[in-house]
Design goal:
Rossmann fold; alpha/beta; six-stranded parallel beta sheet
């Protein structure tokens, strides 16, 4: 007999919320019942669009029928809102980044532990068919022992298309905290925890200009680095190079490649749930496309649904606060290393999330 679905409320009705409202529908372990936002009219519009009830943030947190709150607020208040959710005796699931600094991230995890509650965090794209297929290949030894990796995200920033891009260039934004979680979470899922990090960071342009929408022509002051080159030593041995940039007009870099003693694995874009997985063995002359072993029809929300399933079955959830905190520490370490001119040893560690089983029906997760 299937357990009753856990009731979900969403705080933050901005650009990303539609992906959660629609992505969670395929999972019968959760039911989205309410939408809240600082601007109540936004909550009303989103609630009407998706057939849920509008709510103030205060009323949502006070609602005893709500089990999980998904936090889609701006990065600078992620930790503050998570603490409020946990204080209201609800499980919290937050968009990336987990926090802006380690101290506030630790407060969230400590409160969750002391309260017997769960905290989860995006990205959950590593649970999609593309990266889960890559994980299976590595676990099965398809490229031998992993010895190195590269990961690259390089473009010229979101101000050309995003309707409200200022926060990307304020504290808590930038390519590392905005996009780095996708790439580093994927790498930790594939290779395990990171032991130390180093790198360099810079801001290349003092201002940005909004390129579209109502704010077109508005000038944005850049407050954070916008180009990062990082190096990460993994506890299991591999060394990975990571480039994250909002300063690049064009490039021909691989998205993610894993190098092993017996071959190379091309991993698809970790910002998506599917993609093409390719392998080339040591003696092979051509790349082989590997059929996906897991579904690529899932979308944002699978991490929260996995957390709900884990709550029902008393097992660890995969897109955990501990994983997000470890990735946060690794990301912050690059800028810290740039300032110090040295390696930074990470204090945190985390187990690789358990791989998803093959053959799960769409909308179901393992017990």
């Amino acid at each position: 007999m299937n357990p009753s679905p856990l009731k979900v409320g969403i705080i933050g009705c901005g650009n990303i919320s539609n992906a959660y409202f629609t992505g969670l529908r395929i999972f019968d372990v959760v039911e989205v019942v309410a939408a809240a936002d600082l601007v109540f009219e936004r909550a009303e519009a989103k609630a009407k669009e998706h057939g849920v009830r509008p709510s103030s943030i205060e009323d949502l947190l006070a609602d005893k029928s709500v089990d999980i709150v998904i936090n889609l607020t701006v990065p600078k208040v992620h930790a503050t809102v998570n603490l409020a959710i946990l204080a209201a005796k609800k499980h919290a699931y937050v968009e990336k980044p987990f926090a802006l600094d380690l101290a506030e991230g630790r407060k969230v995890i400590e409160l969750a532990h002391s309260s017997g509650l769960r905290v989860g965090c995006a990205p959950d794209t590593f649970l999609g068919g593309g990266i889960q297929t890559a994980r299976k290949l590595i676990d099965e030894g398809a490229i031998g022992e992993p010895i190195g990796a590269v990961a690259n995200m390089a473009g010229h920033g979101p101000e050309g298309w995003h309707p409200d891009p200022e926060f990307f260039y304020q504290i808590g934004g930038g390519p590392m905290l905005d996009m780095g979680p996708y790439y580093l979470t994927a790498l930790v899922n594939l290779l395990g925890p990171i032991r130390r990090a180093t790198g360099s960071a810079r801001a290349s342009f003092a201002e940005r200009v909004v390129g579209s929408g109502a704010k077109q022509g508005t000038r944005i002051k850049v407050e954070i680095p916008t180009h990062y080159a990082g190096v990460f030593d993994f506890a299991s041995g591999p060394v990975a190079a990571l480039n994250m940039s909002f300063d690049v007009w064009s490039h021909n870099l691989p998205i993610i490649e894993i190098y092993g003693t017996e071959g190379t694995l091309r991993v698809p874009d970790p910002n998506n749930f599917g993609g093409i997985v390719e392998v080339r063995g040591a003696q092979e002359k051509e790349w082989r496309v590997i059929p996906l072993t897991h579904s690529d029809q899932v979308s944002r929300g699978i991490g929260a649904a996995d957390m709900a399933t884990a709550i029902h079955n008393n097992r660890p959830h995969r897109a955990s606060g501990e994983l997000a905190y470890h990735v946060l520490e690794a990301m912050l370490a690059v800028e810290l290393a740039s300032q110090r001119g040295a390696h930074v040893i990470l204090e945190s560690t985390v187990a690789k999330p358990k791989a998803l089983p093959i053959g799960l029906p769409l909308g179901k997760l393992d017990a």
